[in-house]
Amino acid sequence: MPLLVVGSVALDDVETPAETRENLLGGSAVYFSYAASYFTPVRLVGVVGEDWPAEHTRFLQSRQIDTRGLQVIQGAKTFHWRGKYFADMNQRQTVDVQLNVMNQFDPVLPDDFRRCKYLFLANGSTDLQLKVLGQCPGASLTVADTMDLWIRTQPDLLADLLRRIDGLVLNDGEAKLLAKDENLVRAGNTIRQMGPRFVVIKKGEHGAMFFSKHETYVLPAYPTAKVVDPTGAGDSFAGGMMGYLAEQGDFEPKTLKEAMAYGILAASFTVEDFSLDRLKKIERADLERRMEEYRKMLSF
Ligand code: AMP
After folding, report:
1. What homologous superfamily is domain 3-298 in, according to CATH?
2. In a mutational test of the pocket of ligand 1, which residue from 9, 11, 21, 28 has the highest number of ligand atoms less than 8 Å from its CB?
3. 31: which strand partners?
4. Residue 85, phi then psi, degrees to nearest 5
C-alpha cells in the first residue's frame, strides 16, 4: 500500500570528529522515504528552493518515490541544517537552522495523495503536520514524529495533533521533555495518555522502546562498529517501520514488533556513511540478511 510522508527536505552540513561535509542531501522526509521505499511505494510531500539540485529529485524517483508533492519555490532557498557530533557520536548539537522555504510552505495534496491509507508526519512544524493531516481524512494509520523545538514552541497544536494520531515516534530526550518526566517508562505511558494508541521512544545506540495499552518492550540497536554519521537514523527508523507496516497492510502487535525491528535495521545502515550514501548501496536482501542475524542475536 502506498505510504504518504510530509516533512523536511534539506541540504545538510554535518561536522563529525573525523570529517565535515557540506550541502548533503538530507531532511526528515528524505531519509524516511528512502528507507520506506525498500518495502512500499512512497508519496513525498515537501518543499525546496531554487538551489535544490534536480539530480536529488531524480535520485529519489529512481526508487519507488513519487515526488509530485515536492514543490519548488523560485527565488527562495531550501531548508538548511548544520549539525555537529561530539567524540562519542551520540551527542549532537544543531549549529544552525535556516528554515527558508519551510516558512512559506502551504501544501495542497494531489487527489490520489489525499486517499493514502498510511500517513507519516515526519519532523517539521506541528502546524504543517496538522495541515496535511486535515487533507487525509481517510487515513487508517497516522504516525507522527516531533522534536524539542515544536514541543517548546507549539505545545497547543501538538496537544491537538496527539489526540488525532495513532502513533508517535520521538527520541528519549524529547519524550522526557514532553512528559515532564525523567523516567522513560513513565514518560512513554504519559504520552500515550495524551492520545496516540502507541508510542515509540528512540534511544539511539540503545535501540527503541514501544508502548501500547497492552505491552511495553525494548528492542536493542543492531550492533555496528562503523558509525560515520548518525544523521537521519531516527527518520530511517521510522521509514523502515512504516514501510513494513504499509507493505504488510495490518498493524497487529506482532507486525508492529517486526516493523520496529526493520526500522532498527534501516537505521543501522544509515549511520554507516554520510547522507544516504550507505542506504543507496543496499537492497532489500541486505536488510533481510541483517534481520536473520538480528533474530539470532535476540533468541536465547
Ligand atoms: P535525525 O538524525 O533522524 O534526527 O534527522 C536529521 C534530519 O532532520 C536532518 O537531515 C535535518 O535536515 C532534519 N532536521 C533537523 N532539524 C529539523 C527541523 N527543525 N525540522 C525538520 N527537519 C529537521
Report:
1. Ribokinase (3.40.1190.20)
2. 28
3. none
4. -100, 145
